Automatic annotation (TrEMBL):
InterPro entries: Glyco_hydro/deAcase_b/a-brl, NODB_dom, Polysacch_Deacetylase
Protein name: Polysaccharide deacetylase
Biological source species: Blastococcus colisei
Main location: secreted
Keyword Signal in annotation: yes
């Protein structure tokens, strides 16, 4: 009943953003067996007023367009016939490119993002691509006019590359504010996705997702794919909070009886 948000599947990058490829493969197999994984676009009309999908449903998203998605996500998604949406930082696809300088933990080597050819290959294999802004700036720090320009440039470059409209946006770091949400609408997006740490007002320009991180064990990921957003926050059930996770799992089992 949730929209899950992954970032990288880098095997050796010790960042919360980098889920290990084998862990991801295990999570994907569990989702395929236990959830109906929907294309994000089909999920949107089914969201309730709190931004939740119907019981038993989930959707998969990846932010930032890291290069290793081609190696480690694509085969798993294809094998499991799992639909997924990747949100791209448009400037990374320009000839000049853009270094990955928006992450907090440096990679073991410079981190790279998907090339236009890899994006097109993945698109042809059925992966959906949408916008994660032009340059991964914190949009809440830009003026509304700057946000509109950034988001419009991203949508235009991506629709040009992909040959289809790009109506969906994931805010960099999930951050938004009233002027950012207005800018998303003015720049031509129909929906925008957040990554709330606590209950937030939900609307088309603040659709909640829940992040999956490197230290999340199988049980945590199952809970994240199950519980309402306000109860399971993105970051508060990491490895250090095992008792709480177990309590929630117990409640979940009781509910299922
Ligand atoms: Zn991002």
């Amino acid at each position: 009943m949730t929209i899950l948000c992954y970032h990288s599947l880098h095997p050796t990058w010790e960042s919360p953003l980098a889920v290990r490829p084998d862990a991801f493969a295990g999570q994907a197999a569990w989702l395929r067996r236990n959830r109906r994984v929907m294309p994000l676009r089909d999920a949107l009309p089914q969201l309730d007023a709190r931004g939740r999908l119907p019981r038993g449903h989930a959707a998969l998203t990846f932010d930032d367009g890291f290069a290793e998605l081609h190696t480690h996500a694509l085969p798993v998604l294809m094998r499991g016939r799992l639909p997924a949406t990747v949100f791209l930082v448009a400037q990374t696809l320009t000839p000049a490119g853009r270094p990955v300088d928006w992450v907090d933990t440096a990679g073991p080597e410079p981190l790279s993002t998907l090339t236009p050819d890899q994006v097109l290959e993945m698109r042809d294999a059925g992966v959906d691509f949408q916008s994660h802004s032009w340059a991964h700036h914190d949009l809440t720090q830009l003026s509304e006019a700057e946000c509109v320009r950034d988001l419009r440039d991203s949508r235009e470059l991506l629709s040009e590359l992909l040959g289809v409209p790009v109506p969906l946006l994931a805010y960099p770091r999930g951050r938004h504010s009233p002027h950012v949400r207005r800018a998303a609408a003015r720049a031509g997006y129909t929906h925008a996705f957040a990554l709330p740490e606590r209950a937030e007002d939900v609307d088309e320009y603040a659709v909640p997702r829940i992040g999956v991180y490197r230290n999340n064990g199988p049980l945590t990921v199952r809970l994240k794919a199950t519980r309402p957003y306000a109860r399971v926050r993105t970051s508060d059930i990491g490895a250090g909070n095992v008792r709480r996770v177990k309590r929630m799992a117990e409640r979940l089992r009781l509910q299922r009886r």
